[in-house]
From TrEMBL:
Group of enzyme by EC: ligase
Cofactor(s), names only, from the UniProt record: Mg(2+)
Protein name per its UniProtKB record: 5-formyltetrahydrofolate cyclo-ligase
E.C. number(s) listed in UniProt: 6.3.3.2
Keywords in alphabetical order: ATP-binding, Ligase, Magnesium, Metal-binding, Nucleotide-binding
UniProt: substrate binding residues: 61
Binding, ATP: 11-15, 134-142
Protein family per UniProt: Belongs to the 5-formyltetrahydrofolate cyclo-ligase family.
Catalytic activity: (6S)-5-formyl-5,6,7,8-tetrahydrofolate + ATP = (6R)-5,10-methenyltetrahydrofolate + ADP + phosphate
Organism: Roseibium aggregatum
Length: 192
């Protein structure tokens, strides 16, 4: 095995392990921990009025919607990702935004919602380590998008996860973009 294929295999094994831990959490615990994210909204290092991209949760992911609502109350415009191929664009999310099915059990703003450039990405993930290296779902959508967005200005990347998704070490590949911080039910932790 080459170094790259062994790293990919190690990440795939870690992804399976951590997703199994997440799935094993009782549903009530997942709901309670998701609600706890909003208790830490003001701990996030967000510039005033920063445009925040959240995500629509799928399967047993942590649910960012209570946190997003709290951030909206704090004056942050919101948006959601829209898949457009190998990368993502972001469309404005307001109370009256029409959401459409986007596959994978998720929803996204329809074409009538204006496209915006987020200042902050709240990102789903499979796992993370204490250095801010993350394991995504293996398609590199966020890595590609982060690389594109960083060309047009500062970008804060915050992973959202349950604390049970932390692992000792995530092997990194050249294209992997590290997190600036992680928010779990236990609070916000900055990296770097």
């Amino acid at each position: 095995m080459t170094d790259l294929s062994s790293i990919a295999a190690e990440k795939d094994s870690l992804r399976k392990q951590v997703l199994a831990r997440r799935k094993a959490m009782p549903e009530v615990e997942r709901i309670e921990h998701s609600l706890m994210l909003s208790d830490h909204a003001e701990d996030l290092p967000l510039p005033a009025g920063a445009v925040v991209a959240g995500f629509w949760p799928i399967r047993d992911e942590i649910d960012p919607r209570p946190l997003m609502d709290r951030l909206r109350q704090l004056g942050h415009p919101l948006c959601l990702p829209v898949m457009t191929g190998p990368s993502l664009i972001f469309r404005r999310l307001e109370r009256d935004t029409e959401l459409v099915s986007a596959g994978f059990g998720t929803s996204e703003p329809g074409p009538s919602a204006g496209e915006v450039r987020p200042d902050v990405l709240l990102m789903p993930l499979a796992g993370f380590d204490g250095k801010g290296t993350r394991i995504g779902y293996g398609k590199a959508f966020y890595d590609i998008t982060i690389a594109q967005l960083q060309h047009s200005g500062p970008l804060l990347c915050v992973g959202l996860a349950f604390s049970v998704q932390e692992v000792d070490r995530v092997p990194a590949e050249a294209h992997d973009k590290p997190l600036n911080g992680i928010l779990t039910e236990q609070g916000y932790r900055a990296f770097g």
